[in-house]
Amino acid sequence: MGLEELTPRKTILLFVGFAIAILFIKGAVSLWSADYRRGILFLALGTGLTYAFFRKGKIAVVFIGLIFILVNVGLTAIFHPTVLGFFLTAGSAAALVVLGRWYAGKRRTPQG
């Protein structure tokens, strides 16, 4: 997909997908640090945005989230290498490849 195919609607959906990925990450981090009220709030907001904007295209949210994690953790792993960072980078890259192959092989119908 080139820049000439990037419409304003697709751009907005891309940024909403980034916001959803950030909300889910913040929710998981808040739950990890025992801040349950904020964690549940962030997860609920992310779920609401996902339902509102990506009802039929949930696979797009998964792709956007995996790419967001791959880019941000991958860049951090270069400067501050950790075992967890390496596994997150490799896992998100592998998940993108597997998910892309599964989605490419899936039969599409005119309804969706």
Question: Care to describe what's here?
Answer:
The protein has 2 domains: 55 residues; 56 residues. The longest helix has 25 residues. It is globular. With 112 residues, it is an all-alpha fold. The relative contact order is 0.10. Helix 1 runs antiparallel to helix 2 and helix 3 packs antiparallel against helix 4. It starts with 7 loop residues before the first helix and ends in a 7-residue tail after the last helix.
How is this structure best summarized?
The chain has 112 residues and is mainly α.
Task: Outline the fold blueprint.
Blueprint: H1 8-32, H2 36-53, H3 58-79, H4 83-105
Helix pairs in contact: 1-2, 1-3, 3-4
Mean pLDDT: 82
Give the overall form.
globular
Beta strands, count:
0
Order of helices and strands: HHHH
Helicity, in percent? over 70%
Count of helical segments?
A: 4
Whole-number total of structural domains: 2
Q: What would you report as the Rg, rounded to the nearest angstrom?
A: 16 Å
What ranges have pLDDT less than 50 throughout 5 or more consecutive residues? none
| Class per helix and strand makeup | mainly alpha
N-to-C terminal Cα separation, in Å?
20 Å
The biggest sheet amounts to: none
Strand content: under 5%
Overview features:
single chain; 79% helix; 0% strand; mainly alpha; 112 residues; 2 domains
